């Protein structure tokens, strides 16, 4: 069953019923954005206070979900069975139940107690999940079905009625959460009605804030305020920062890939120019499994970020860019037993055994994520760093080569069938709209590709400079010199044997076996 949507023109009624106050602002259509918040006819200079004020009891966060569960014993059963894993999971579970309540047919028993959010979700758009997350969302939905099917009430309310949720409804509540969740200073990840309809911008003129009342908790609220010194004229759009609340925003800026995933587009000037790559141990490392175990499992990663005004970089200035990379596992990956690394099974008092990691005969199991600092005090630290830099170079080069190899793939945006005589007006319009969508997707993909290529290229230059510095380090020069001397000695010792072998072969060549 389709998600019921209400026109935004009817939102003022919901606002008045739930004490949400708009001051000299209203929602309106925004070109290329759908809708957003704009100033009223008289404009706004912020002197009147909050642009939007939302009572705290309407804010949806983990504590609010828990309070709802106290009022609805059926939801309590569902939350205990399928929730309590993350803030996102609990909020999505609540949203799905409210969506199901809204889908209920006349005469059907409501799946849960209706609350203001039951109606509010009907104002939210029908977004779609992207391919990259479909598998994960399917797994979550299947897990929810499995856990809730053991609860008779929810088996009937969710899975036995025609108006029950489908997989696309789980996609929908996830999309709502991703694109609308705000990180409030006190409440954490939260969804705030009406304020979540304000669009984001690289140059915001407003910010949101969580206000506490000394009188009573009931008077607490979340407000939208104009930034100091800002004034908006009539019909000007009011926007907030991608990075968070506060007059100057937060440092928690989304990477370009996450911005594309959450909002459907990338603002190069607002997104962090960074990416995360999977990082795997050497396939022939006999200690690989042990290293992964103490490091938290197989999902190790390399994070690379281009710092500074990356949006204004060009090909001639990439080398001057500052790059920050993070990969604690790379340090552990590049040392072995001959360097002083060891793993031992230790028996606990309860009879169980635990794998412990030792470095220079000291148990450092609990410091696996801080292994770089452990290496820094070793006399061969520059040697270890050189190994790490070399390994990172190889990983980044491989990723860049994969991206360049896929560069020839183009997204077709033109319809090859130009037989207008057999195409109806409706079909032609659908094809034009479909082409526009594909063209927009191709544009956003190209922006992401360009950002990530710049990050990788700049990282390679930075690592090469770091490698050159390490190769001139006195410790490294001495170490490599001793290694070369050892190899020459081995080659010299092998030479007489090789000469005897060559002589025997020459003698054998004179024999005639015909």
Automatic annotation (TrEMBL):
One GO term describing the cellular component: nucleus
Biased composition (Acidic residues): 411-434, 500-514
Organism domain of life: Eukaryota
InterPro entries in UniProt: SET_dom, SET_dom_sf, SETD3_SETD6_MTase
Region (Disordered): 403-436, 487-514
MF GO annotations: protein-lysine N-methyltransferase activity
Coiled coil regions in record: none
Sequence ranges assigned to domain SET in this UniProt record: 18-243
Classification via PANTHER family: SET DOMAIN-CONTAINING PROTEIN 8 (PTHR13271:SF76), UNCHARACTERIZED PUTATIVE METHYLTRANSFERASE (PTHR13271)
Protein name, entry field: Set domain-containing protein
Native source organism of the sequence: Ophiostoma piceae (strain UAMH 11346)
């Amino acid at each position: 069953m389709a998600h019921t949507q209400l026109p935004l023109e009817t939102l003022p009624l919901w606002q008045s019923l739930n004490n949400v106050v708009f001051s000299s602002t209203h929602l309106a259509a925004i070109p290329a954005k759908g809708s957003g918040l704009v100033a009223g006819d008289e404009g706004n200079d912020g002197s009147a206070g909050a642009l939007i004020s939302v009572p705290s009891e309407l804010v949806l966060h983990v504590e609010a979900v828990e309070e709802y569960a106290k009022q609805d014993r059926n939801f309590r059963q569902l939350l205990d069975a399928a929730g309590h894993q993350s803030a996102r999971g609990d909020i999505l579970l609540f949203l799905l139940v409210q969506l199901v309540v809204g889908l209920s047919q006349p005469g059907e028993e409501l799946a849960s107690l209706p609350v203001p959010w039951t109606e509010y979700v009907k104002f939210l758009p029908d977004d779609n999940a992207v391919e990259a997350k479909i598998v994960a969302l399917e797994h979550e939905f299947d897990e929810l079905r499995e856990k809730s099917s053991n609860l008779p009430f929810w088996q009937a309310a969710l899975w036995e009625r025609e108006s029950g949720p489908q997989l696309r409804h789980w996609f929908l509540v996830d999309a709502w959460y991703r694109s609308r969740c705000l990180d409030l200073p006190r409440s954490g990840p939260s969804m705030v009605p009406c304020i979540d309809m304000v669009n984001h911008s690289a140059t915001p003129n407003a910010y949101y804030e969580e206000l506490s009342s000394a009188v009573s908790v009931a008077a607490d609220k979340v407000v939208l305020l104009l930034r100091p010194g800002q004034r908006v004229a009539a019909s000007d759009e009011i926007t907030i920062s991608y990075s968070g609340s506060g007059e100057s925003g937060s440092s928690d800026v989304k990477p370009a890939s996450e911005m594309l995933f959450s909002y459907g587009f990338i603002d190069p000037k607002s997104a962090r120019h960074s990416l995360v790559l999977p990082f795997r141990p050497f396939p022939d490392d006999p200690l690989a499994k042990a290293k992964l175990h103490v490091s938290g499992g197989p999902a190790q990663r390399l994070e690379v970020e281009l710092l500074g005004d990356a949006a204004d970089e060009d090909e001639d200035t990439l080398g001057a860019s500052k790059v920050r990379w993070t990969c604690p596992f790379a340090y552990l990956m590049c040392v072995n037993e001959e360097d002083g690394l060891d793993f031992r099974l230790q028996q606990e008092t309860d009879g169980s055994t635990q794998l412990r990691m030792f470095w220079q005969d000291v148990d450092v199991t609990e410091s696996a994520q801080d292994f770089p600092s452990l290496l820094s005090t070793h006399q061969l630290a520059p040697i270890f760093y050189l190994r790490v830099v070399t390994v990172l170079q190889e990983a980044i080069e491989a990723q860049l080569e994969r991206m360049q190899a896929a560069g020839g793939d183009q997204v077709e945006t033109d319809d090859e069938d130009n037989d207008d005589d057999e195409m109806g007006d409706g079909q032609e319009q659908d094809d034009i709209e479909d082409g526009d969508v594909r063209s927009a997707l191709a544009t956003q993909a190209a922006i992401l590709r360009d950002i990530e290529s710049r990050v990788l290229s700049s990282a390679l230059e930075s690592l090469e400079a770091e490698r050159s510095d390490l190769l001139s380090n006195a410790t490294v020069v001495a170490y490599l010199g001793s290694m070369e001397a050892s190899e020459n000695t081995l080659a010299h010792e092998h030479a007489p044997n090789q000469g005897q072998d060559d002589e025997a072969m020459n003698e054998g060549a004179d024999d005639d076996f015909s």
